[in-house]
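Replying to the earlier thread about multi-chain prediction with a worked example.

Input:
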Amino acid sequence: MRTEGVMTEKIAACVEMYGVSKSFGQVRALDAVDFEAAKGEIHALLGENGAGKTTLMNILSGLYRMDEGRIAVEGREVDIHSPQDAIAVGVGMVHQHVELIGNFTALENILLGREGSRWKLDVEARRSSVEELAANYGLSIPLDEGVKTLPAGIQQKVEILKALYHGADILILDEPTTMLTPHEVDGLFTILKSFARGGLTVVFITHKIQEVLDNCDRITVFRGGLKVDTIPREEATRERLVQMMMGERGMPPEGERPTGPSAAREGSPALSVRGVRTSAKWGVPLTDVAFDVPRGLIVGMAGISGNGQKELAEALAGIIEVEAGEVRVDGEEVTGLSVAGRIARGMSLLPQDRIEEGILPGLSLAENFVLGLHPHIFKRRGVFEREAAFELGRNAIAEFNILARNEHVPAAHLSGGNIQKTIVARSVMLAHKTGGKVMIANNPTRGLDVMAASFVHGRLRELRAGGAGVLLISEDLDELCLMSDRIVVIYAGEILGAFDGPEYDIYQIGALMAGQKQEEVS
Amino acid sequence: MSLLFDISLFQLTLLMMAPLIIACLGETIIERSGILNVGIEGVVTLGSVTGFLLTYYSGSAIIGCLVAALSGSVLTLLLAYFSITLRANQIVIGLGIFVLGLGISPTIYRLAVGVVQSIPQVPTLKEIPIPLLGAIPFIGEIFFRQNGLVYMSYFLVAAVSFFLFKTPLGLRLRACGENPRAADTVGIDVARMRYGACAVGGLFLGVAGAYLPLVISGSFTDNIVNGRGWLALMLVIFGRWIPVWSFVGALLFAYVDAFQFKVNALPQFAKIIPPQFLLMLPYVFAMIVLVQVARGAESPRALTRPYDREARD
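Result:
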């Protein structure tokens, strides 16, 4: 139990962490990091993927044990060995992928672990106190819905309310905006600002500089497991933050901006989709999906995760069957063809889940490269020509700048960014061999650091410049605006609208992502 | 038709149902916490040998049942240790437990009894008609003229349902089976919950084992369980991890089992239908029903997945 009287002169520093270090096996994730956050502020932790910001907060919330270091809350040193200890000192964390139980109602999720009774579960008895808390903090939530049916933005509110119900006065949010539409992001920060005014400490983890500049009181920047510095908002500029985040490397050169649909090449579109429907047994059913990807354009597909993007990518690639409609590649109908048939006609796919669907983790890099390319590199059918495979692997490692000792390393030993490079390399090589008419990239940069993402973007732009059509499916609206000549919006398996680039109004797109029809928006 | 709707057939159905549902409830508790115990057949077999021997030597069926329960719990905790603390593959360990239980039980029996001329026997449990309820025609005669363990199985269905869905502990247990990290982040000790589920679920499995010699056969034979453990495992899926539905499934299956038992005893059928065919009937029935019912059944999300707090994804 915390006592009220202790926080007198130490009021500024609500949480202090000193000399925190943490290693995972050989990898030093945090190296003697100091951090402090004050009562009533919104404190941003800024850094690239893998910079250590989430690791630090997982230590504070009791999920990870630090190897070295000390933690003090409101001036008193505390031992945090488990989430239970963290809750006891008032730390609550909202994780990037919300940690809720899909089959429970929102109310059950909130009460879990603090049910308020010992023997008889009485959800109703606690309802009023949860409702009161929700009203106090301006969080409106349907308490009786099963959590898995709720949209991501609401799930996040459930998680925030859960943390508050468990007595959090230090609220940590890990990348809270990745799954939200621009409107929802604004709403979230309005709520967080009112929390801070009410005396809560809000720490939020992000890699988006603009969010930091718009919403934070202080900013701590991480790079490669080290803390770079903590600066107040007034001293922060975009350039300075970039410099702190990236260090000597600087930002990758910004690629060529999209030019808009006028750049489309003549002739039939690279990919043409008409009236495609799929059955609900494959996930989100698609209803009458129709759009074109002209040659020489990147068409972005915006939408909140789980609105049919995965199903669409798989239907286009021929992995799941369509019930109605047609898919054409360069004017030629491919609707009834197998995956291999579509690849042979110039379609390639960058799958969404790189570990599950993209690679053979136990096999060598060379063998991973061969996959799908085998008809093109082996001279004799049905024979695995080792030398040809090794050569392919060596060339790919050099050409695509993949960090690996050699082509014999198992793919699973690479970092996430290098695994993604491997998959991109394979798809791009395949595209070259098959004439590369259309590339379907499903969230190709998710979880990558800026450098690796820039590499992927560069390769997609190359394909575009070579006259291929690229369908870029992404949950990151900033990425889509940066890359796309046109953006179409998918919601609940339906295409709700299309916007021509190169300039976009993200609020209009966001409204469609949230399910409003285009007429209602204008 | 009277063959299908005979009161004694229904009474036999309830008698056959009890061990299935008791084992099934134990497995439900274990699986709801996120542990899949495919060694259930082995655990039940161990329960039947310890239950039989202790009843035989002590003369008390109650002591037999208690020791059987404990032995079931101990063997299930072995599974728990490997799958929770050592994070081993639960299927592999479960199959190991299955083989271990099946092998060690006859060994214990032979060590205790030795080679004998006449097989040791215990008196089977008597039916205890419940006053008033047992006097209700038909329904009462079927449900309330049974042995004590059958009554216990009714009680356990209600008790486990209440525990899972109406107590804070039940909510926490289900949380561990659905999303252990979510449970952990609100301060629930996932490992402790899972160990607890295995310990308690194991008690049920042991009692289910003891039931077979104490009620059905009166003696122990190597093959006494005869797939009932596996059936209980299937009934968990049949009931979609909800005790009341598993109870319905156990009744259905026990009915077919009792039917084949009755028919096999009738001489006029023995000439027409080979007894092996009738013996097969319950299992064929189970397969057909399960193929239909199990389609789309949603297991606890974290079933078979070990939990490691510091795992990075």
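Residues 416-434 of chain A form the longest helix (19 residues).

Feel free to reuse this layout for your own posts.
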